[in-house]
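Researcher: Please predict.
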Amino acid sequence: MEPLLPHDDDRARPACAGKSRPVLHRLWLILAAGALGGIAGGLLGERIVRFLGPARTTQLTILWSVPSFIGVALAPDAVSLGIVMFLFEFAGLVWNTVSVSTRQRMIPDRLLGRVNSAYRLLAWGMIPLGLALSGSIVRLADGPLPRGVALTLPFWVAAAGVLVTTIFGWRPLARGLAPAGRQVRGRRAKMRVPLADATGCATVD
């Protein structure tokens, strides 16, 4: 006799099959909220950088990751988690506004491709390592701690790690992005001060 395929008989379906659709709907809500946050951050990022300056913007967007990870760990439902993801992705795209523009401005064109590839390697290459570390944390904590607590523990560890990184990187970010901040303030001043003609009279551009 041929093996019974899951869709051939309702008896072969797992008991939780009927519950999968609401779970998927909640997952789509969370992912869509994050995507909307990224779009909003991309649209408003330039204005935020112009208002706060590049250094302060990067400092605050990194710092925002701390309550974001804590919010993921404590979110009681999909709506709350969606709000957290919206704000998290918003801050991430504002960070990218500073990061990408600063690299393009400071790095010579002949080296930009190499620097971007190294940046991507470090940024994306850490993701599988983080996943492996998260799984190890959950596995070690599951048993000594309740399973629900163990599953959220990686987010608490991530929040602590980002907090330490922010503390040690706060001043270096301010020093490293100071030239970019002066350029932003210079452009802002040019936008506010009217042009003058050869006689010294103000003119409208």
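Model: The CA atoms of residues 70 and 99 lie 24 Å apart.
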